[in-house]
TrEMBL record:
Keywords noted in UniProt: Glycolysis, Lyase
Designated name of the protein: Fructose-bisphosphate aldolase
Swiss-Prot/TrEMBL catalytic activity: beta-D-fructose 1,6-bisphosphate = D-glyceraldehyde 3-phosphate + dihydroxyacetone phosphate
Pathway per the UniProt entry: Carbohydrate degradation; glycolysis; D-glyceraldehyde 3-phosphate and glycerone phosphate from D-glucose: step 4/4
Length: 340
């Protein structure tokens, strides 16, 4: 393993004032997004949509793009590989390598992320296609007391450790994504407790499996109230609890933390990231690795029409710029309200 090369890529992924675009929706997920805007989910429409994002000015604020297997192999309309478009925009191509979740035997309602079989071969192939980092998402469901089970936390953390070690051996920086879901009516205290349990188990596995912390990026959820909780914690409390959790659980050797948005509104995902970054100085770069919170606005504007491409690119660029400001703790509502 060339740790110095991994560390260089990891640091570039969290370059100050930039963040990561999660454009790795699997075929089923992108179909749901396209259904919502009445666009047919064909390979060409998926290509056109993603090409539109990768050619936008907003890429100035994007350090890396997480791709799905189909996308990393696709060419733009003029024949240029999409990977090249990303590189030409000064961004690093990455790849989602997990193969989704499956029900976890003995643990009703819980899942384990799969995809370790033949992963070493797949990583070598993705490296050859231009990927320099990878992503694996563990999904941790929670309720007020019973879930997550010790089993679910352990098997998901173990898989993240196996994946991360294999990535580093293949020369790819692993994004380690343990997502504690925000669905449900639990309060923010429950989210904090469960996220802390999960995070501690993940770093235990990373140590056991000899993952070099300097050559990885952490992609966690923020500590927030469950979406259906009657009492919603405010921005200050979310920032305070998220920073407290990171300080307790994340070693300073990790170069950066790139949060997922997890279903937060665009505005809240930005406001939370900004408030978190105003709590500095902290040992890690703290930025975004958003899917929905970067793409919901351009998807609505685009609606599958060529005539809307420019406006959709402006909508994407605006969200990317706002989150880039938040990654420096420099976002304001005045800037938010400037025309997209
Ligand atoms: C872009 O969405 C990714 C999930 O795709 P699948 O569910 O189809 O595998 C997801 O892993 C994403 O990268 C993260 O959850 C961050 O996205 P959000 O929308 O939570 O910011």
């Amino acid at each position: 393993m060339n740790l110095s090369a991994l560390n260089t890529v990891a640091l570039a992924m969290v370059t100050p004032g930039k963040g990561i675009l999660a454009a790795d929706e699997s075929t089923g997920t992108i179909k749901k997004r396209f259904d919502a805007i009445a666009v047919e989910s064909t390979a060409q429409n998926r290509r056109d949509y993603r090409e539109m994002l990768f050619r936008s000015d907003g890429m100035t604020f994007i350090s890396g793009v997480i791709l799905y297997d189909e996308t990393i192999r696709q060419n733009a309309a003029d024949g240029t590989p999409l990977v090249k478009l990303i590189e030409q925009a000064g961004s690093i191509p990455g790849i989602k390598v997990d193969e989704g979740t499956q029900p976890l035997p003995g643990c009703p309602g819980e899942t384990v992320t799969v995809g370790l079989d033949r992963l070493a071969d797949r990583l070598a192939a993705y490296y050859a296609l231009g990927a320099r980092f990878a992503k694996w998402r563990a999904v941790i469901d929670l309720d007020k007391d019973r879930i997550p089970s010790m089993t679910a936390v352990h098997v998901n953390a173990h898989a993240l450790g196996r994946y991360a070690a294999l990535c580093q051996a293949a020369g790819l920086v692993p994004i380690v994504e343990p997502e504690v879901l925000m669905d449900g009516d639990h309060d923010i205290g429950r989210c904090f407790d469960v996220t802390r349990r999960v995070m501690n188990e993940v770093f235990r596995e990373l140590r056991i499996q000899r993952v070099a912390l300097e050559g990885m990026i952490l992609k966690p959820n923020m500590v927030v109230s469950g979406q259906k909780c009657p009492v919603q914690a405010g921005v200050t409390e979310v920032a305070d609890r998220t920073v407290q959790l990171l300080k307790e659980c994340v070693p300073a050797a990790v170069p950066g933390v790139a949060f997922l948005s997890g279903g937060q509104s665009d505005a809240l995902a930005t406001a939370h990231l900004d408030a978190i970054n105003r709590r500095g100085p902290l040992p890690w770069m703290l930025t975004f690795s958003y899917g929905r919170a970067l793409q919901a606005a351009p998807q609505r504007v685009w609606a599958g029409r060529t005539a809307n491409v420019r406006a959709a690119q402006r909508a994407f660029s605006h969200r990317a710029r706002m989150n880039a400001l938040a990654s420096r703790g420099q976002w304001t509502t005045e800037r938010e309200n400037e025309a997209a």
